[in-house]
Amino acid sequence: MSKIKFYRQCVLEKETSRQTSYIPETYAIKDQVLQLKENEVWEDGWKVIKVGPKVTADYVESNERNYLKTRKASDI
Asked: Is 39 helix (H, G, I), strand (E, B) or coil?
């Protein structure tokens, strides 16, 4: 039997930037400073400022690219 993995939606802040991301539950600790990988480059200094409820990894992974369809769905 496999163990279910969870993610939490967190608000992360670095200098003057802020973003919301789903991160693995083990790293979703308020005030923890993390590294984030974007475009194959790791960036230091992202601080977790808010932690949301947990969701399953299956949910996050199956919906991670929904933003690509937002404009198509909203332009009528």
From this structure: coil
Q: Is residue 67 part of a domain?
A: yes
Where in 5-62 does DSSP place strands (E)? 6-14, 17-24, 33-38, 41-56
- Check: CB of residue 17 under 8 Å from CB of residue 37: no
CA distance 76 to 62: 25
Two structure tokens written together for 41: 């480059």
Whether 43 is covered by a domain: the verdict is yes
For residue 66, is pLDDT > 70?
no
**Containing domain of residue 48, as a range?**
6-74
The answer to the question of residue 1 being in a domain is no
- The domain tally of the chain equals 1
pTM exceeding 0.90: no
